[in-house]
Design goal:
206 residues, two-stranded antiparallel sheet, 61% helix, transport, Glycolipid_transfer_prot_dom
């Protein structure tokens, strides 16, 4: 897992193809979320797992990338019906299939897990990443994981680097790292909340 390099004075977030801050959310259309931008942002976020540095995080990253792939495949198969994530899910379910819809459920859980872990860690100066990630895992992914998968993810939580080492990998200027992370995580939290609300609705279930 190689961490992307970035220019001197820059941060890891500068290397992202798309930031969640820039993902269009159409408030006039029931908070419709642009599919392509969202998937690019989700894909970019997985770079953070590379910064965590341990191969133990490979299953976490691979799981998220696999779910991005499922959604992209549906988008490519029916582009006219997939401009927003909500349209993509509703239109796929009309075909009696739910591969992408299920992929989005798991992707949202993975994003929720990452968002909660990093937000909690930023909010608590002295807390190590392993504690933040373990707490987030218990509240998001763990209840949905089988007894076979749980130990794999638990191992990743234990393999978190020390807090100071992780943030250094995100950028040399720590004030800038925090200044960029805060709005990024706030935007991600908003998108996750919108999608969880949508997935709770009857039209999004199969």
């Amino acid at each position: 897992m190689s961490v992307p390099t970035f220019p001197t004075g820059g941060t890891l977030l500068d290397t992202f193809k798309k930031s969640f801050v820039d993902v269009p959310v159409d408030a006039d259309k029931d908070n419709a979320i642009a599919t392509t931008d969202f998937l690019d942002a989700a894909e970019s976020l997985t770079t953070i797992f590379d910064a965590l540095g341990s191969v133990a995080f490979s299953p976490v990253k691979n799981d998220m990338m696999g779910n991005v792939k499922k959604i992209r495949e549906r988008q490519l198969a029916a582009p006219a019906e997939s401009a927003t994530l909500q349209e993509l899910v509703i239109n796929e379910l009309k075909t009696k299939k739910h591969n992408a819809a299920e992929g989005l459920v798991w992707l949202v859980r993975g994003l929720d897990f990452t968002c909660i872990a990093l937000s909690q860690n930023l909010a608590k100066d002295g807390e190590e990443l392993s504690e933040s990630f373990r707490n987030a895992y218990g509240n998001t992914l763990k209840p949905h994981h089988s007894f076979i998968v749980k130990p794999v993810f638990s191992a990743a939580m234990s393999a978190c680097p020390y807090r100071k080492d992780f943030y250094t990998k995100l950028g040399a200027d720590q004030d800038k790292v925090v200044a960029e992370l805060r709005p990024y995580l706030k935007a991600l939290d908003n998108i996750v909340a919108i999608l969880k609300g949508f997935q709770d609705r009857k039209e999004a279930k199969w």
